[in-house]
Amino acid sequence: MPKQAKKTRIFGTTEKPRLVVYKSLKYTYAQIVDDSKDKTIFGASDLTKEVKANAKKAKSKMDASKLVGEFIAKKAVEKKIKKVVFDRNGYKYHGRVKALAEGARKGGLEF
Question: Which domains does the chain carry?
Answer without folding.
Answer: 18-106 (3.30.420.100)
